[in-house]
Amino acid sequence: MPLALARGFLTGIITGTTLCAFVVGIVIEYVPLMITGVGLPIAYGVLLYLAGAPRRAREARIAPVIALAKIESLRAGGTETGDIPVYFDLTVAPEGSATYRLKITHGINLVDLPDYHAGDVLVVRYPPDRPWKAEVVERLSPEWERRVAEAVIESAPESSLVQEPAEGCAFGALAVLGFVLGAALVLYLFRAELFAPEEPVRAEETQSSTTTSSSGSATVNVDRSLLGEGELRRAIDSLALATDVSQVITAVVEDRRLTVVFAPTGAQVPRFDLREPAVDRVPALVERAKATIHVGDPKTWQVTIIPFGTAVSSRVIVTGPDGSGSLADGG
């Protein structure tokens, strides 16, 4: 009994560890853990088989008990072709011992099934210490055939039913405890990967420098192309933190530089707020100019943004080996 309890506890641990390892491996995308989850029950099964080898060897050396048995009732189940399982309720009459009831399952070919009836006598064979593992003997010696023909067996009361001892509540409780401990072990070992807070995804900040001159202009130099998504808008916002960008008369955008010219104080000239134009359209304008203006392979580009009446106009100039050309926004 203690060995059975230990086996139940260990089986629970293996089951909990296996399931949890496989699921956690999928969640954290860790293939070795998933492989462990699949391989652990296989290894455990092999170990159980090897551990049971001595017991099976001892049982093989012990002669089984052969006894007569009367069929009290039988019921067929399973498929309708080939060998089907038949559930027998028997009264077993071992020689020199009291009769008892026993329930077993035996596979019988469908063709031979009509040969078995309630009240018929069979011969069964079972280990001396485990009668519930009895099996029907189909090939009988002449001596046993004679004994079957002459046998008269009184039915044993149902209260004498012999069956495999129940493993009990302790076995189930230990199996559940082992399952919980196995799962908890995996969760504890990989708690950092499972429960660590995710780092917020932050856009890589653009390094920029702003230079403002006394002559009414400012320049923003960045370390990446202003054609990148949102880069020009970030450069303008950076400049707006350093100076007033609501009085701009010209803005020139190059690959990694933004130059802004401000309106002189008191001068009545057209001006605009640099934060208002749709600068997100500049990358598309540059790409369209590179594709439509035939200057060879364009090497440089420059976008000029100026006020035009009540609107703001953008024009791109691209330069290549074959010269230069321009394209206005909307052109």
Automatic annotation (TrEMBL):
Membrane-crossing residue ranges in chain numbering: 30-51, 169-190
Region (Disordered) location: 200-220
Positions with biased composition (Low complexity): 206-219
Assigned keywords, A-Z: Membrane, Transmembrane, Transmembrane helix
Protein's recorded name: Conserved putative membrane protein
